[in-house]
Specification:
The protein is an all-alpha fold. 21% of the residues lie in helices and 0% in strands. The protein is built from 2 helices and no strands.
């Protein structure tokens, strides 16, 4: 229930290129797995990017309806 992953542009780029190892400099990602719901702290709610959701708007639906 917590959004995660790349933005639409990164998804498109890496979904349609030949897979091979590459270096991503100056970046680090952490993944946490839990059966608990994550919530933002009061501090985070005041400082997060309120327009972050917009980077997902161009994401295309590649799933097909199994009934067809």
């Amino acid at each position: 229930m917590t959004p995660h992953g790349p933005d639409a542009a990164a998804f498109e780029k890496h979904s349609h290129t030949e897979m091979s190892p590459f270096k991503m400099a100056d970046t680090m990602a952490f993944m946490f797995e839990s059966n608990y719901v994550f919530r933002l702290s009061d501090y985070a709610q005041k400082h997060f990017d309120k327009d972050y959701w917009k980077c997902w708007q161009g994401l295309k639906n590649y799933h097909t309806d199994a009934k067809k």
